[in-house]
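JOB MANIFEST
job_type = single_chain_structure
chain_count = 1
residues = 336
[input]
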Amino acid sequence: MEAQLESLRTEALLTVAACTDEAQVEQLRIRYLGRGGELTALSDRMREVSKEDKPKIGKLLNETRSAVTAALDERRALMVAAHEARAFDGLDVTLPGASFPVGALHPITQLMDRATGIFRRMGFALADGPDIETEWHCFDALNTPADHPARNEQDTFYMPDGRLLRTHTSSVQIRTLERVAPPVRIIAPGAAYRRDEVDATHLAQFNQMEGLYVDEGVTLADLRGTLEFFFRELFGNDAKFRFRPHFFPFTEPSFEVDIQTAALGGGRWLEIAGCGMVDPAVFEAVNLRRGDRGLDPERHSGFAFGFGLDRLAMIMAGVPDIRLFTDSDQRFLSQF
């Protein structure tokens, strides 16, 4: 048996050294080391070896198995290395590597996330509602008269069943007041839809962020402080503000907010938001729907505000055409 092992070892090492591909190496592994392999067969014959010779033959058997295994592993490693070397033939490792562009959030989404973070720091919760709304939530509950131009089909997208695409996210405020008793402090970012002619400053679908705060003792000073803090966080502490009287059906008194800051060209005033104190008629309309007096105009007051995220992004980035935000031009979007 000693001679058989020596002969098998010599034969196996020579045969392995002559292999030319990985498949042959695997075949030899099975031939010599597999369950039915030649070395396995010799191992099974150890029972026939005399007691005196077993230590010597056992040692030789282990050495032969180790030598054949090492030769197979070495030959396979050489084959793999040669294959990998061939794969890189002709490759100029001095050439610059390929660049992989890194994506980013859309500039409107970036602004929405930043604005949401600022309002969250002031205790506002995030609220959401459906894009397809009822006239009651979009107009009636907001004290909008039946002859208001916004309710005309020339301005609003109506469905055959009488529902409509919301013209503002104020409908989210109404849906929140239907479900929740004061105090209520929410922001409602999202898409709004109007039949505007698409041009450099108008889109049929645009993005708004509206806010609502209702509690006992809420005043106009709270509204001004909230908006001034928010816009200073966006534009810097040098920003100046003015509140101009305006009219909105759902707030009284109502204002438009203008801002003046060096970041926007110095002396120019720019209109950036609308706001006001919630009209008691809105509370009464919601009470009728709720079936209670959860919103008591004698106890509760509140303010609401809203601004266009697209317009705000245009102002902050100096973008001259709102359509650039929807054209999906990577040359433009990659700047953000």
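[summary]
The first strand starts at residue 125 and ends at 126.
The two ends are 78 Å apart (CA to CA).
exit_status = 0
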